[in-house]
């Protein structure tokens, strides 16, 4: 396929672009930052630029089969709330609108684990969390992710051929980030804000690739996280200490993810293959990675 990736210069985007190219796709990166030669410089808040660059760019491409929309201010607190809202909401509307005008019906878009209720100052309804309870955004950043998912639900109702897959990524990590992981164990509250989850960027890219391949008309949302937590301490102990009284559903396993990826496994064929435990060694991680 010829695939437009927005935000392809970013932390997740770089790996997504490389992965899709390795798989044989033709990839065009639309981003406002990045090294010359690796992107078409576009401000996605400017609809004129968006529709033009998605339709074609001289010397680059003359139309796309699919869009992977990753560009965003990627967290709360990086810009003012109003700037985060404006950038992310407008960029996403512009990308979705350009796809509509140009007849592109395959979209994979970056949502976020934050819609699950991060930082869980209000405890989750049950653990492991999944996609089955209504969104609980607790920041403007997360509110926009929720509004984007909601917008997609309406757009697929307007166009029965349209496929929008929202991937609710956990905290994205590169291999260099893993050296810090063994220290998390000392304080169970340090990473409680996302239920001790993470996603290796390479597995995030795998999820994008699988979502593109599995795209069916309609909207769907998937939590995308690593198969394990950032902790060596066992799940039962962490949950009892930090979230006493929260309903525990099923067997938590020792270090298995508490952000359920069962739906992504089942419907996308997603299976994380990277763990921080492989990177820092089983000794520092307190034992072998869970199966
Ligand atoms: N990093 C995480 O832990 C995490 C977790 C969950 C979801 N996400 C989501 O995944 C996506 C990618 O995140 P990331 O960590 O790679 O972020 P990043 O900041 O590294 O990359 C985002 C890219 O988007 C580009 N961008 C932002 N606004 C733009 C605009 N108006 N026009 C053109 N380009 C624009 C930036 O230049 C940047 O290169 C985002 O949608 C983010 O919200 C990230």
TrEMBL record:
Gene3D superfamilies named in the record: NAD(P)-binding Rossmann-like Domain
Record-linked InterPro entries: Epimerase_deHydtase (IPR001509), Lipid_A_modif_metabolic_enz (IPR050177), NAD(P)-bd_dom_sf (IPR036291)
Domain NAD-dependent epimerase/dehydratase residue range list: 3-214
Highest taxon of source: Bacteria
Protein name: NAD(P)-dependent oxidoreductase
Organism: Agromyces allii
